[in-house]
Amino acid sequence: MAIPDFIHDDDDEHRLPLPPAGTRTESHKDSLFSDHLEHHLFHGPLKQLADELYDAGPLNGPDDALERLKKIQRIQSTLDAMTSVLLADSVEQVSESFADMIATAGTTTEEEEREARKSAQYYGVDRGSDQVINSNFIAEAAVALRETPRMVGKRMFYAKGLRYACKETLTALAAGEITPKAAHDIVKYSQDLLPEQIMQMQRVLLPMAKTASDDAIYQRARRFHDRMCPEAAEQRHKKSEKNRKLTLWDNENGMSTLKYYNSAAVIHSIKNSVKWLADRHNDPQDPRTREQIEADAFADIILNGWPDREGTPLKPRVSITIPAVEMLADPTRTVADLEGYGPIPLGVALVLAKDAPSFQRVLTDPWTGAAIDVERRRYRPSQSLKDLLRHRDEHCCFPGCRRPADRSEIDHINGWAHGGHTTRDNTHLLCKQHQMFKHALGWKVVPRPDGSKMWVTPHGLSALVIPESVKRVDQFDHVNDHCPERPKVIPLPHIRLTAEVRRVLGLKPRVDIPDEDPGPESPPDDGQKETG
Known about the structure:
Blueprint: H1 32-55, H2 61-94, H3 98-104, H4 110-123, H5 130-145, H6 149-165, H7 167-174, H8 180-188, H9 195-209, H10 214-228, H11 233-241, E1 245-250, E2 256-261, H12 264-279, H13 290-304, E3 320-321, H14 324-329, E4 335-338, E5 342-345, H15 346-353, E6 362-364, E7 371-374, H16 381-392, E8 409-412, E9 427-430, H17 432-440, E10 444-447, E11 453-456, E12 462-465, H18 499-505
Antiparallel strand pairs: 1-2, 3-4, 4-5, 6-7, 8-9, 10-11, 11-12
Helix pairs in contact: 1-2, 2-5, 2-6, 2-7, 5-6, 6-7, 6-8, 8-10, 9-10, 12-13
């Protein structure tokens, strides 16, 4: 992308000088000739480069390899240009008939359409608005591209910027003359500029972008924007300060990253406070590095409060699933699940759970690992069902959505008014936004007994969503819409119900547990003896 992940991204298509939806003639050709002309413009270079690579035959030394790498880079540029055109044109064209399309997509009765209109009114959305159409199409494109809606939303921003505001940049990108990153940086720093200023920036930067590094274009585009943007630096700072927020994303090896976006004064004050606290730590026997001490001090402040201060410390609020049978069978190969993240080492899970005030037993399918029932300690069944869905789904079940369980709600797959029951087979977790997609924007979902869902978009694309708790997915067939069949005999490790096993599983102790494994059963005595 144009900027590192740790830099706050506040790109907004409303900051680009885009013509209103419905008037964007680039996406609505007025003649067959112009259609064919654009088809050759965006597909011709790709076909030529692909043919040259195919006809080149086997590799012939390092010089040949470098020339092929240059062609591959140009292919990536042309593909990025084609993707941008397809996204921008498709969302523009669908806006003309979207309201009529979702009124008939997947519906069979007038009653269903009336309910969809009532749902749209309930959620306070206009199904014909540009914002709703854009969000809905981004979700469908995410299914086609196998990306998250957030990533496709960024693609859509650049697609509209290239198609309607930075046309010369799009042409150069389609020809493979500039890199996708250089094109994205030009679009990014076209925000808040006038059309004539954007034209001037392209005249200055595009000749250079054909040979210069991506970083050089990024720096020059940023400086050009700062010179030409009519807003003062203080005004831009006040506008940026409104976007302060705290975000999180998960990394590998049981780690996560927390990003706190705020004014430089606040961030530097926090950093200096943590450094001051770390400076007071003078233990020569402590093996931790300076960075580790500061990281631990920051965590202690957030979770336990500032040292020597009274207050209400924040304790970790986590949900951990520990597979008891696997743990007893082979602790060295067992991993636990941290809700909202995924697998973590068993030792870490046991440390986190040792001071837990209570436990809730979760029954999992030994074949797939999916949560299929929870221990019911409460009188209200709805809470028990909510506990089950939290362990089974772990997050919103819409394709590509990762909103955690505590930000999602129980949704009936088949509506209560149409005979749908409040059962585990007919319910799943959906966030508010995607409840609206399902009930008001023509998305359909078909449930399966193991908790997986087959979603169908308004334009007929299919996406199979598997619950996060399902561990065995090797037999899921996404193409043919097939889920795995359980074997008649499920191989499980042999574990005797010793007193320790019963204690871990919460079973009542029994006195008739054998001290040793009795071994295989003896064959029945039928009165016959073997003779030599």
